[in-house]
């Protein structure tokens, strides 16, 4: 029972926190966006894209583990997204 709860929480909290990081970095991107030529704007854009790919990797991993109930393959789509992020 306790290990099932930890298993579920660990697979739900990781994508939740990654999604929060994407949301906050998107707010920062909107706040500090100037022109595409500005170095600071490009930094926030790349950071937000990286956080987005990381979130998608976490989300796919959670879907594999919680909803599909399959043995998680290696390499998986989630691994590719984490590497891109």
Please describe the structure with a list of short key phrases separated by commas or semicolons:
85 residues; mainly alpha
Kindly summarize this structure in a few lines:
The chain is mainly α.
Give your account of this protein's structure.
- The protein has 85 residues and is mainly α.
- The protein has one domain (2-84).
- 81% of the residues lie in helices and 0% in strands.
- The protein has helices spanning 2-32, 39-68, 77-84.
- Helix 1 (2-32) runs antiparallel to helix 2 and helix 2 packs antiparallel against helix 3 (77-84).
- The protein is elongated.
- The model has no long low-confidence stretch (mean pLDDT 89).
Q: Secondary-structure map with pairings?
A:
Blueprint: H1 2-32, H2 39-68, H3 77-84
What is the string of helix and strand elements?
Answer: HHH
Mean pLDDT: 89
What structural class is derived from the secondary structure elements? mainly alpha
Cα radius of gyration in angstroms: 16 Å
């Amino acid at each position: 029972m306790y290990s099932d709860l930890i298993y579920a929480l660990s697979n739900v909290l990781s994508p939740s926190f990654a999604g929060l990081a994407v949301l906050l970095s998107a707010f920062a991107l909107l706040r500090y966006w100037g022109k595409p030529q500005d170095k600071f704007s490009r930094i926030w854009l790349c950071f937000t894209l990286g956080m987005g790919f990381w979130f998608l990797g976490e989300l796919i991993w959670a879907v594999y583990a919680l909803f599909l109930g399959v043995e998680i393959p290696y390499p998986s789509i989630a691994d590719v997204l984490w590497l891109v992020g």
